[in-house]
Amino acid sequence: MASGKNGQPVVVVTGRGIITSLGASKADNWAKLTAGESGIHRITRFASEGLKTTIAGSVDFVPVEPFCSTELGERMATMVAEEAIEEARIGSKGDFPGPLFLAVAPVEIEWPHRDVLAAGSGANDAVGYDDLLRASASGRFHAIHERCLFASVAEHLAERFGTKGSPISVSTACASGASAIQLGVEAIRRGEAEAALCIGTDGSVNAECLIRFSLLSALSTANDPPQAAAKPFSKNRDGFVMAEGAAALVLESYDSAVARGAKILGVLAGCGEMADSFHRTRSSPDGKAIIGCIRNAITDAGLAPDDIDYINPHGTGTPENDKMEYLGVSSVFGERAKSIPISSNKSMIGHTLSAAGTVETVFTLLTLEHQRLPPTINYKVPDPAIPLDVVPNVARDAKVRHALSNSFGFGGQNVSLVMSREPA
User: Fold this and answer.
1) Cα separation, 186 vs 253, whole angstroms
2) Would you name the residues annotated as active-site residues?
3) Which structural domain range is residue 139 located in?
4) 305 by DSSP, 3-state: which?
5) Cβ-contact 10, 3 below 8 angstroms
6) Helix (H) or strand (E) holding 349
7) pLDDT tens across 289-333, in order?
8) Which of 1, 305, 316, 354 sits in a 20 to 30 Å window from 227, CA-based?
């Protein structure tokens, strides 16, 4: 039996699936990502005239009519799960041999749903909140009620893929995708499962969400050209670009994967988390939680900071986040932080929010597989306060044995994952 730290099972990856604004499938995404292509474009899904931000990395090629963020999220999750399970060649159709851990955006009633309720309220004048409540309680809108339950996406996926036990839905802001993976790793380490299906999905590019983030001054307003808006770690960065996407991983114990002859695609070697609860959107100025999160992941992997060859950062392009991530990385890695390659996928795909941790884990695993570092595009004005090797603008071949992926969410929710190319 292969054992990792403290005699726990080694957790490996045997299947991966991904969809972003660059396209569907690992092959399409990896080719465009390493070519430095951007999937960010002008919003056509809804009218954006008068808004400060009119661009996004929306996944418009997956049809959902009428549009519903939760419906899009579920459809993307289905697509990536099918790709991951097919690559893993695990179980049989509708019979996945393990639990489901799903990172999903907060599910809530959206403006189109309110329009339907308003039309059915019977109100002759302006429709108020009480009118919507009465319409909701009438029992005539069961489909909207079922769709807007937080657990609905996980329940549908569990039924479709035949996962075992109660599906777990998790929403820890921008760390959600990494949290779902951590839950899968922990379940296998505890011996509760030999395999786990971990998915992150987010289809939240709608008018209401865009306006909310805009009111927080979190979004880039560099609308022209859209492809140049996301500028992580640059001095002229001005915010993140909202985006959509999904990714899935099939995790297994090393022994289980070897026993059935599965191809091992990488190792989920370490998980670290730490929250600071300092502010709704800002990190604690001392960076304690970010620093602790990174250190916890490296320690959990049984490694030292000098073992990390590449970092896939949170790297949103907001002035605050990039500054705090540099503080965390430089505190953990010291002078070596300046020479460790650290490139942001968000410069090309935007910020996929609840899905980001899972999406970027798939990209990190592909980096380990191909030994090629995706670039940080739009890096034209270096920030002297953030002296990092961001793999500027052009992809680079490199030897990568161990990689770190960071996910830092609003509310101080932080998760870091360490991946290795091969079992130790």
Assistant:
1) 11
2) 174, 314, 351
3) 112-147
4) helix
5) yes
6) helix 346-349
7) 999 999 999 999 999 999 999 999 999 999 999 999 999 999 999
8) 354
